[in-house]
Structure formats: C-alpha cells, structure tokens
Specification:
Blueprint (H helix, E strand, L loop, with lengths): L5 H4 L7 E4 L2 E4 L2 E2 H4 L5 H10 L5 H13 L8 H10 L5 H9 L9 H17 L4 H16 L17 H14 L6 H17 L7 H11 L4 H26 L24
Antiparallel strand pairs: 1-2, 2-3
Amino acid sequence: MTNEPDDIRDWWQTSIIDMAPGKIAFRGRPIEDLIGTVSFPQMIWLMTRGDLPSPAQAKLLEAALVAGVDHGPQAPSIAAARMAATCGVGLNNVMATGVNMLGDIHGGAGEQCAELYMLIAGRLDASTALDAAIEAELSAWRAAHGKIIPGFGHRFHKPTDPRAPRLMALVREAAQDGIVTGRYAQIAEALQARIGADRGAPIAMNIDGATAVIFCELGFPPPLSRGLFCLSRSVGILAHGWEQMQQGGRNKGPMPPDYLPRYTPSKPDES
C-alpha cells in the first residue's frame, strides 16, 4: 500500500480516517479503542471537529439531537419519506427522500439562525451594546431576506415551542457549570423578545433557533447546524419510513384519492 505513485495516493487526502488492511483509526484513534468507550454524540464531534468533547459537552449536543428527531407526518421531510415508502423503494431510498427535503425553509433554518447569532456576537465583540447589535443585524437581515427571521415562529406552536424552553434551560445550566459561555443563549432570548415586541405579540423560539444556540455555544460553524439537524431528523425519517412499510399501502400521494387538487385554469392570452 506504500508503493503507489504520489499522484494516486494524493487523489484524496483526509485527516479523518487512516485505513489500511487490518487498521482503522479515526482522527488518530484506533477504532477498537473507540468502540464501547465513546457515545454516538462524542463520535459525531470527533469526526467533525477532530477531538473528543467532554462528557458534559457531549450531553448538551445529544440534547439538541434528541429534540429535533421528529415532528410528525405534517412535516414535509416525514411526509415525503412516508410517501416514498409506499412506492416500492428501499429504506435507504426512503431516508434519502426525507433528508433531501431539508432545505432553507424546512430543516435548514438553523444554519441561517446560527449565522445571525454570530453576526450579532461579532458586534458585541466590537463593544456594541446587545440591543444596538440586535437592532443593526435585524434590520440588515430583514432588508436582505424579508420579514421572516429564521429560528423564530412556528405554525403550530404558539406562543411557545415546547422543545425550546427545555433546551435553553440546559444551556443555562451548562453555562453555570462553565461548560459554555451562555452568550448565544442571551443573544437568542433578547432577539426573541425584540421580534415579539416588533410584532406586538410573543413569538416562539422554534427548534431551529434553540438548537442553533447549542451548536453556537459548542463552537460548531453554522453550516454544521444544518448537517447536525439532518442527522437528528434522520432518526424520525427512519422510524416513519419503517412504520409505513409495516402498515403497507401502495403509491400513496399527499392526500387521499377521493380529494383532487383544485383546477384553476390559466387566464386567456390577452395579447
């Protein structure tokens, strides 16, 4: 394995895994030393970050992963997975169908929310007061993206998403124990209050907003917020896909066959 030309061996380069016949090591740690000694959240951290988290850090990451696993068949990712399960494809295809539904609007808002938190944090680093930092970045965000702020608001859970307060409580506990700083929790809660004040009614911090707090507190870059949510929601997609396979059904569409979409004819050409 060591005699190949460098242009072949250098085709792919990775610091993640060192694999050869009889050898598997992740980030320099033999697989046999990891099996049975690290948790799955710790392994996720090791693979994406290069080191092992403390048990307390892994516990906080795990809480975020647990919170996002599922939101029922009305969630597009779950609905798509269940429909795919009735189309004769394998479970891996079912899971891929669901994961591929996770985009900027559904499932990917955590990345955008983490970016916003970090922009506000950057202003705080420049000695801007929290209220002024939020005002500046909120105005800039709305000017660039519109009135909807990622991480806040929910079509079902009003004015509270039951997942968020629990996650935020865990962040505050971790901050008290010195595991995280708590600065992103402070930013998120102040941002939530400001959005609510602007609209004249309380607004929920949703799962994207709450998990983005945890991912930022733990030092994950914003794009990984989306990837980590995909890992989390994959559990629900797997469970729903498998359940649908057990229930049966063939070629189920998005609504029962007795109901058809409303036909709306196009306007006549007025030219």
